[in-house]
Amino acid sequence: MLGSYHGVLQTLFRAGVIRGSSFAGIEYYQGLTAHGVINALVLTTFFAVALGHALVSQELQEPLTIFGSTLSMVVMLLGAAMAAAAILAGKATVLYTFYPPLKAHPAFYLGLAIFIVGSWVALYCWIPAYLRWRKNNPGKKTPLAVVGMFAAFIIWQIATLPVAFEVLVLLVPWSLGWTSGVNVVLSRTLFWFFGHPLVYFWLLPTYVLYYTMLPRLAGGKLYSDFAGRMTFVSLIVLSSPLGLHHQFADPGISSSWKGIQGALTLLIAVPSMLTAFTLAASLEFAARQNGGRGLFAWWKKVPYFDRERWLFPYLFCGLVIFLFGGITGIVNASYSMDNIVHNTAWLPAHFHLTVAGPVFLGILGMSLFLITGLLKKPVVSQSMALAIPYVWMAGTFIFSGGLFLGGLRGEPRRTNLGLTYMNPASPSYRPDWWITTHVGMVGGLIMGTAILLYFVVLIRSLVAAPVAVRAGEPLIPLSEAYHDENIPAVRNFAPWVTVAVLLVVLAYYVPISDILKSKFKPAPGYHPDSPVVAGITR
Amino acid sequence: MATSESSGSQINSIEKRVVLAAILFAAGCMAMLAYGTWGLGITVPTCVPDAKNFDHGSVAKLANKNYELHYLASMWKFEPTRVLVPAGSTLDIYVTSKDVTHGLQILGTNVNLMAVPGAITSSRVHFDKPGVYTIVCHEYCGAAHQNMSAAIEVSDKVADISAEGLAELGEGRKIAEDQGCLACHSLDGSTGIGPTFKGLWGQTVQLTDGTPRKVDEAFVREKIQNPDSNHVKGFEPVMPKLPITDEEIKQIEEFLKGLQ
Q1: CA A77 to chain CA centroid, nearest Å
Q2: Percent with pLDDT over 70 in chain B
Q3: Does B105 reside within a domain?
Q4: Which of these, B141, B69, B58, lies nearest to B103 by C-alpha position?
Q5: pTM score of the predicted model
Q6: pLDDT digits (tens, 9 = 90+) for A39-96
């Protein structure tokens, strides 16, 4: 709730409707930090852990240690609370990327580190269960949902190591005053070493829902089990050696290596395109089972508005949004095109079509599904629950449309436009940004409306009387596969993880050694509200 | 249509074609980018190993209508704030930051750079069309980030470059540079052969004979005119005698006062 409130507020500030540095006691950049950290780091990770617990225990039928899963939840809550306290106290207004030399209170960095360690504990709970299952089920294919969740967390484990180093070794001592400076170029590189695979950690749980739940919800089967496994293992390999594409405009890194990692980024479009095909084929299979005919007319037989299957549009609308998210992602990765879009409003427009598209809709829908399923509550009301993804989709398209166009006109991201660029009294006033910022605001307000509706449904469902659940049905009904191939190459994690690690070393060894050899001068810290070096009293 | 198929160990042929199509698409994108980079010469910033760190903005003429601009980004302005160049100019832009990470984008061009303290980012841009090109800082850099912008004006009515918003270097600073004082006395707080000038004014230093002395007008004058006096503890007595006039000493004092 807190995260979404701040999201809507951003659009009001940027359109110049609010022309101040703060609103209701929260300063613009503080709210932006809260929005990013809560929605993009905390919410997504909690959901991935929860979905993992649910799917791994259901599919493997092996008990997970209560101690382990409770420990992971407690540690994650503790870390999130520490970081949130620092942000709300105004001592961590550094945005979710926390680029040094802007310096936050140590509790912010420590809280994030603790939070991430808590999420590792969840993975470590599942591994013994999985190994037991393998022993008891020799020769059987690991359930696809488990492969997907493991892939997500393997990516997460690889990705979080560099940022854990950045936070614990570089930033925490610096924020405590034990070291006097931090290597900014190295910090940025370590962060984005983490920051790209982060988005695949966000995406994979939703891909799991797409491959394992969507076909059944549509009334059919998954077109190809192999496609799911292939996608999951190729994302393990391709997600990490790409971080430099977030640093195309940075100093200290050669354009050759930026180009190499940029080219690798284009390859990662391949598993997603395979996914798009497979899901479309699965939907077609389902539609034709239900009477769909013709080359395109079968699309009419997809259950867009079936109240009983209210979860379907969360997944389907996510896919539609992701089409545009993916295309604009290809633009961002395209090296030279980044010169036009880097750090403009185009970028949040892109990622609100990815993390705030399929990922967020998956989180919303599946959270409602799991909460009502576990607590044996009805969904009140199914019609409203069904409508929410459509409202959200309309909102995101309008919001991102405004920000894409605005970004191409030069609107910067992460900027309180209302104070200057969108303030007629300011010499920087840009009247040509009026329409795009206001379109963005309208979109943001629609998105906020969808969130309000969601909480109405959630709360009404939670307070409703419990209902009986049909015995014998699993909590999460998963699809069967139409093509259920047995391709040995995608049935073992070990070779793919090995290749992933090798590729990461190959892609990052030279850039990082270049940075270390360049001996960039360590930078002292600054608080966001003062141009004087933090900690020097004069 | 069959309700289910176990296709054994064969990948479905349609899938193979889809994966191939996807790979070809990715390859096509890479080919277009290769053309953009090597054919059209559009690149992103790369290492500039021979660029020296700078701590103030400047503009310099390299040749007719060829200029070198050093932008210093700081909380919360760009130095220079406004540059006027003739139409048809080529500008080599170098940017760094004095404090935190900033961004520098010249709207309407391909110049999109991160200004990182301790490192230099560079790009070349050519301006044919007259007009005012806004520069924005697009990386959050603190509370007044939204105030941070600059401009490049391109005009067909001027023949040479001019710039506004450059810091007044001041005579004292120039003397310190010319006379070589900065070879031993740093400006950024780091200790060299001599103590740093940053924050030196008004400090009390310990001499080798134990007496404390305040760094004021009298002390500075004595040290410059007779460097072999007043040896400060912890530093070698190697300061040379330099031909600095009284007037210049006054300007050096002003300069030191400003370096708190």
Answers
A1: 19
A2: 95
A3: yes
A4: B141
A5: 0.86
A6: 999 999 999 999 999 999 889 888 778 888 889 999 999 999 999 999 999 999 999 9
The residues pairing with B68 across neighbouring beta strands, listed in sequence order, are B60, B92
How far does the CA of residue A371 sit from the closest CA of chain B (Å)? 33
B14 within a domain of the structure (yes/no): no
Q: Are residues B153 and B178 in the same domain?
A: no
Q: CB under 8 Å to B189, separation ≥6 — which residues?
A: B196, B198, B199
What ipTM was predicted for this assembly?
A: 0.90
Question: B30 — contact with chain A (CB < 8 Å)?
Answer: yes
Nearest Cα to A226, choosing from B42, B16, B59?
A: B16
Please tell me the distance in Å from B34's CA to the nearest CA on chain A.
Answer: 9
Cβ of A254 within 8 Å of Cβ of B46? The answer is yes
How many domains are contained in chain A? 1
Question: Number of structural domains, chain B?
Answer: 2
Same domain, B66 and B157: yes
Chain A residues close to B46, C-beta within 8 Å: 253-256, 258
Tell whether B249 is within 8 A of chain A (Cβ).
Answer: no
d(CA A449, CA A443): 10
A131 alpha carbon, distance to own chain's centre = 28
**Domain carrying residue B185:** 171-257
Q: Do B101 and A101 touch (CB under 8 A)?
A: yes
Decide which of B164, B191, B224 is a domain's last residue.
B164
Contact B46 A410 (CB under 8 A): no
Listed as own residue / partner, the contacts of B230-238 with beta carbons closer than 8 Å and 24 or more positions apart are B231/B207, B232/B195, B232/B205, B232/B206, B232/B207, B232/B208, B233/B205, B233/B206, B233/B207, B233/B208, B234/B206, B235/B193, B235/B194, B235/B195, B236/B193, B238/B184, B238/B193
Mean pLDDT of A209-228: 93
- Residue B96's SS3 state is strand
Q: From A184, A86, A412, A192, select the one nearest B100 (Cα to Cα).
A: A184
Residue B174: closest CA among B244, B237, B239: B244
A55 Cα distance to chain centroid: 19
Measured in angstroms, the CA of A341 and the nearest CA of chain B are apart by: 9
* Range scoring the smallest mean pLDDT among A272-281, A428-437, B92-101, B162-171: B162-171
Q: Of B120, B223, B235, B8, which Cα lies nearest the Cα of A252?
A: B120
How many beta-carbon contacts under 8 Å exist across A and B?
234
Q: Which residues lie below 8 Å from residue B39, measured CB to CB, with a gap of 6+?
A: none
User: B110 — contact with chain A (CB < 8 Å)?
Assistant: yes
Whether B142 sits inside 8 A of A417 (CB atoms) is: no
Query: Which residues of A have a catalytic role annotated?
Result: 196, 200, 350-352, 413-414
Range of the structural domain that residue A381 is part of: 2-518
Are residues B129 and B175 located together in one domain of the fold? no
Cβ <8 Å between B105 and A416: no
